[in-house]
């Protein structure tokens, strides 16, 4: 049965409601802005908290073989010079034979906000477009508009999400990350050789291009002793072509014990 979405916005909370049946009025997803207070760097912490209906999931910034990557429109925000999203470690699941990467239940997405003026109010406002899935997948759009409480103290939900972020390459003991770039018939193959201890279990690596002009396919991951080898092919997102820079490639390794965020690689 075809499913439609109603977008309802009230204050800080936006609700996405299915119309499967007249009695089904529970929202599929709701969003609110959390306050996290000031940092020692002169920035402010906030977060978007997404709460999904039981059994539903949404996607990480790179959703895997199938899924809808989230996107953001921050227009409406005030006194905001820069935003940095800190993604918590996602789950890897299999859906109808496809590997997908995302979150079930609830997602707290910390955001570090650099203000234009330290003495003025800061408002976080905009829209988030995302995919949500259970037996079917549907697109959703939720809105938020919240003036931050700049005097707010430490928020436990934001702190927990920050603690669940992937380790840095240094924290995870990555010794080297080398990438070989090879032209293919339609795009460019990246083969990454990462010297690092295991992250636990069957590791899954995700390679992101660092450019909106390139779209990545599935990544094959293989452990060879102390070396993790990850291979993927990037294709052009349009007819304009693209170029890859090793320094902008981002490799995330997802294991059963922890995840690792590797920024850039060298030739090899």
From TrEMBL:
Q: Which InterPro entries match?
A: DsbDN (IPR028250)
Specify the Thiol:disulfide interchange protein DsbD N-terminal domain's residue ranges: 43-144
Q: Which keywords does this Swiss-Prot/TrEMBL entry list?
A: Signal
Signal recorded as keyword: yes
The signal peptide here is 1-21
Q: Which Pfam family is an annotated match for this chain, by its short name?
A: DsbD_N
Q: What name has this protein been given in UniProt?
A: Thiol:disulfide interchange protein DsbD N-terminal domain-containing protein
What species is given as this protein's source? Parasedimentitalea denitrificans
């Amino acid at each position: 049965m075809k499913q439609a979405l109603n977008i309802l916005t009230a204050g800080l909370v936006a609700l996405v409601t299915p119309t499967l049946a007249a009695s089904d009025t529970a929202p599929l997803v709701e969003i609110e802005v959390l306050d996290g207070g000031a940092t020692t760097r002169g920035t402010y912490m906030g977060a978007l908290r997404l709460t999904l209906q039981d059994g539903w999931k949404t996607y990480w910034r790179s959703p895997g073989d199938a899924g809808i990557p989230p996107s953001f429109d921050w227009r409406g925000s005030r006194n905001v010079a820069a935003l940095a999203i800190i993604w918590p470690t996602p789950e890897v699941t299999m859906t109808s034979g496809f590997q997908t990467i995302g979150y079930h239940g609830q997602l707290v997405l910390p955001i570090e906000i650099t203000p234009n003026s330290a003495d003025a109010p800061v408002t976080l406002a905009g829209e988030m477009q995302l995919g949500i899935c259970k037996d079917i997948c549907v697109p959703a759009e939720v809105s938020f508009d919240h003036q931050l409480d700049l005097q707010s103290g430490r928020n436990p939900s934001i702190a927990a999400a920050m603690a669940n972020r992937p380790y840095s390459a240094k924290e995870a003991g990555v010794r080297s990350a080398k990438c070989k770039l090879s032209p293919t018939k339609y795009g460019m193959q990246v083969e990454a050789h990462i010297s690092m201890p295991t992250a636990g279990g069957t590791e899954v690596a995700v390679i992101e291009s660092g450019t909106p002009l390139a779209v990545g396919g599935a990544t094959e991951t293989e452990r060879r002793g102390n070396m993790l080898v990850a291979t993927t092919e990037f294709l052009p997102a349009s007819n304009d072509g693209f170029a890859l820079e090793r320094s902008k490639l981002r490799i995330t390794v997802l294991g059963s014990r922890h995840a690792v965020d590797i920024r850039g690689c060298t030739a090899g």
